[in-house]
């Protein structure tokens, strides 16, 4: 049985914490920041987030050897 590979796209987007949570950075802060997005929205995009417990198994499945 061959090894199961880690999904590289997921490995670049998610990081494991020491307590076992998975954190991520919010999407939407790359371009069109001078217009279209309010200051309040851009402020909220600065903060990252944690993967919801109901999605943990799915994300951990893609992060085989990094999790």
Explain this structure.
With 67 residues, this protein is of the alpha+beta class. The chain has a single domain, classed as Irregular (Factor Xa Inhibitor), CATH 4.10.410. It has helices at 8-13, 39-46, 56-62; strands at 14-16, 22-25, 48-50. A hairpin with a 5-residue loop joins strand 1 and strand 2 (22-25). The mean pLDDT is 93.
List its traits.
elongated; alpha+beta; Factor Xa Inhibitor; 15% strand; three-stranded antiparallel β-sheet; 67 residues
- Secondary structure: number of strands: 3
Helix content: 25-40%
CATH class: Few Secondary Structures
Question: Order of strands across the widest beta sheet?
Answer: 1-2-3
Any idea what the radius of gyration is?
15 Å
Series of H and E elements: HEEHEH
CATH topology-level fold name = Factor Xa Inhibitor
The geometry reads as elongated
What is the CATH-assigned architecture?
A: Irregular
Set out the fold topology.
Blueprint: H1 8-13, E1 14-16, E2 22-25, H2 39-46, E3 48-50, H3 56-62
Antiparallel strand pairs: 1-2, 2-3
Please outline what is shown here.
This protein has helices at 8-13, 39-46, 56-62; strands at residues 14-16, 22-25, 48-50.
């Amino acid at each position: 049985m061959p090894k199961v590979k880690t999904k590289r796209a997921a490995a670049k987007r998610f990081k494991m914490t020491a307590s076992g949570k998975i954190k991520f950075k919010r999407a939407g802060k790359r371009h069109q920041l001078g217009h279209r997005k309010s200051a309040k929205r851009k402020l909220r995009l600065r903060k990252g987030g944690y993967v919801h417990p109901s999605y943990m198994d799915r994300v951990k499945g893609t992060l085989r050897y990094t999790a």
